[in-house]
Amino acid sequence: METLIVDRKDGIVTVTMNRPERKNAANAKMLSELLETFLEVEDQPDDRVMVLTGAGGAFCSGADLGDPNGPATDAKRAGLVRMRRLGDVALALHRVSKPTLAKVDGVAVGAGLSLALGCDLCVCSTTARLSMIFARRGLSLDNGASWLLPRLVGMARAKEIALFGGMWSGIEAAEMGLVNRALAVDELDAFVDEWATQLAAGPPLALSMTKTLLHGSSMASMEQAVEDEARCQSLNFSTRDTSEAMAAFVEKREPVFVGH
Prior knowledge:
Layout: E1 4-9, E2 12-17, H1 28-43, E3 49-54, H2 79-94, E4 100-104, E5 107-109, H3 111-118, E6 121-125, E7 129-131, H4 145-153, H5 155-164, E8 167-169, H6 170-175, E9 181-183, H7 185-200, H8 204-217, H9 222-236, H10 240-251
Parallel strand pairs: 2-3, 3-4, 4-6, 5-7, 6-9
Antiparallel strand pairs: 1-2, 7-8
């Protein structure tokens, strides 16, 4: 790939956006490769967890407005068509049924912050700088941000973040619940590695169904939620992984999950 580095080890897929000279701004090629990679991770049974990060001390500075083929500038396509291509990337990330984890250092702004927040978990450095900068560029939210923000921090805080387009430190982002953790830069890699390793060792089907339940909860009644839970749990009880978890508990050992 031209704009991504994709590494696989022990069930963990690390996807590194690799345009450090542009603070990993997403050009058309990167968006295409992100879409391809997200679909591939979803399709590969050996991929248990995906970590999304950036090279060169930045996460992603948003869409590359200098790219003539980008979602904001491609003269060959209508504006709505261009932006739907960006939306396809957000949807592909959202549809990855395995746990996804963003590791954020440096800037994560605009569509780049949307990518980070689109992951299930987001861990950043204390010195990271996060912004939904759209309003300052005369733009509204994109790349899934309008759906993600109010679910993470509530509507009032989401409006504050979006309407002012302010810049938040990693510490501030953690305090408001925008991200899960803010850590010193020298602690970031080890912490994310530990989380990713724990998730990769977890029960794939149960984790996938947990994601599905949580994603659907805001649009479901309590009656629908408990029915959905019952269906998922009944499937879990029929799998080898749940039997393995029960046996491991009795035998006082760590379970080994295989995904069925």
